[in-house]
Specification:
The chain folds into 2 domains: 120 residues, 3-Layer(aba) Sandwich (Rossmann fold); 41 residues, no CATH class. Helices cover 44% and strands 12% of the residues. It is built from 8 helices and 4 strands, in the order H-E-H-E-H-H-H-E-H-E-H-H. A 4-stranded parallel beta sheet has the order 1-2-3-4, with helices on both faces.
Length: 178
């Protein structure tokens, strides 16, 4: 992913990641820094505990299908219509297992903090990630960190998309030169 982005980083940019995407965005920011690429203007990480903490999904990737599906149901992110449709499940289960296996393989060892301004978003009613786990991201940044709560659950980006867009636009407006 980093190599595909490098030629396109000649203009200011920001990175947003939600849930597993937050961990991927954080890893991408580190990979870009390590390669000497221009840093993002801002990093937005949402609905995932700080990387030195636990994996909120658990190690369900290798479970038998019925137990794996029960684990997915606990996350409340997959519509019931999909979970009830065996054909759709057959299409999506392999990639979901791969995503969760990737999540479980993440090395949670210390890296130098990122010197990038960051906004960390958490849902007010998130059943997966606690507010303290969102706040714990602060230690991974040398730049300014703004922790915000958005009204909604773990998938608050679906519950309150306007609130998320407003936070992103406000932070990006602050990054613009006067």
């Amino acid at each position: 992913m980093r190599d595909a982005l490098l030629p396109r980083l000649d203009a200011p940019y920001a990175i947003y990641g939600h849930s597993l995407g937050a961990l991927l965005a954080f890893g991408l920011a580190h990979a870009l820094r390590d390669s000497g690429a221009p840093a993002p203007e801002h990093l937005f990480l949402a609905a995932y505990p700080a990387p030195h903490l636990h994996n909120p999904v658990g190690d369900i990737a290798g479970l038998p299908e019925a137990e794996f599906i029960e684990g997915l149901k606990r996350l409340r992110g997959i519509p019931e219509q999909v979970l009830a449709d065996s054909e759709l499940l057959n299409v999506f289960l392999p990639s979901l297992r791969a995503e969760i296996a990737l999540l479980n393989s993440y090395v949670r060892e210390g890296r130098a903090p990122l010197a990038v301004p960051a906004t960390i978003l958490g849902g007010t009613h998130d059943h997966v990630v606690a507010a303290a786990e969102i706040d714990a991201w602060r230690q991974h940044f040398a730049g300014a960190v703004d922790v915000r709560e958005i009204d909604g659950g773990h998938y608050f980006v679906k519950d309150a998309p306007r609130s998320v867009v407003d936070v992103v636009l406000a932070r990006l407006a602050l990054a613009q030169p006067a």
